[in-house]
Design brief:
This protein is mainly beta. Helices cover 11% and strands 29% of the residues. It folds into two domains: 5-71, Alpha-Beta Plaits, CATH 3.30.70; 85-208, Ribosomal Protein L9, domain 1, CATH 3.40.5.90.
Length: 213
Amino acid sequence: MSEASEVVRGRMAIVRFDAKRCIHARNCVLDRPDVFVPNVEREWIRPDNATPEALLRLALNCPSGAITVERLDGGESEAPALVNTVRPRENGPLAFHGELAIAGEPPSFRATLCRCGQSKNKPLCDGSHGAAGFQATGEPKVMESAALARRDGALKILPLPNGPLQVQGALEIISGTGRTANRVMATYLCRCGGSANKPYCDGAHGKFGFKAP
């Protein structure tokens, strides 16, 4: 968790919110405005207004991983996904779900990584795509690919200096409408915003002089 994180302990669960990771998908305040209470100055996270099961469902619906829940009732907690996926969000970031090992970041199960090239919080998305007017489809072209022998396991993501995201491990690329666009064991995904073959890297970062650690 970052310095911008909040930790709120309830009777049955602990809710952690990391503002550094938040992309304001607003699923939390729309689904459970009694737990994540909008437009109040204090005590805006109220875990005792929901069951631990409901809190966990709320966390799982947070694409960025900004919300995590630790249950105190001995019940089932979040586990790695059975299928590692990445969903290119329309005009937005890459939403990963799996057993994520992102270089420079703590282990996580959910993360949204910048693909517009403008985030001040790389490799994480910080919402800059909106102000930048970034445009990229959430419906990538379907490519012929064979079923993976294993669909889970560690997914290693390395942001290459001034280059793309190097991804190693079983990964299914899913469109916004739920189609499987591709299945890979290794790939390079654009994070400069300039590729003509999004979500994949086509080397445009060199042409545009993309700079990022």
